[in-house]
Amino acid sequence: xxxxxxxxxxxxxxxxxxxxxxxxxxxxDLLAVPAVEEAADRLFRDRGVRDLxxxxxxxxxxxxxxxxxxxxxxxxxxxxxxxxxxxxxxxxSVHPAAMRQGIGAALLRASVSLAWxxxxxxxxxxxxxxxxxxxxxxxxxxxxxxDDLGPGLRALAESAVERDLGRHGRRVAMVRPVRDxx
Length: 182
What we know:
The protein has helices at residues 27-46, 58-62, 103-117, 135-140, 151-162; strands at 3-4, 22-24, 66-70, 76-83, 86-94, 122-128, 144-146, 171-177. The protein is an alpha+beta fold. Residues 20-179 form the N-acetyltransferase domain.
């Protein structure tokens, strides 16, 4: 089991729980991820988004570049891919019963730490601009909206358009440098 650092990042907001252990998912952890995703997706359903795809099965998550998890049993996870030589946060979900405890923030910090360890210059993501727990939340954790899209990130953004994800709200690309320029 590989634990990742989740503290000591310039610009991290104060008061975030630093005792949360984030680790690379084991095969057993991956089995728990779909239930966390399904529970987290209920928040979108509560906003009227009723046509979400089902949670990805554990086997599909095992194909990701890295899946990070927090909690025993798993309470949150982050799916990371390599895109344009950088790290890309494909998905981050926290079980609603475990929200507001710093798990999401710890997963973000671990994602940045992992990106730094492999020499990436930034972590990217695609998200909804106006959903409170999407772009506004990421912005509070150091991510900034960007139009600096490499070919891989541009292809992911175009795929989201093709899948009509914009029908649920405006989508944006966001990035966070792995080293804060300050």
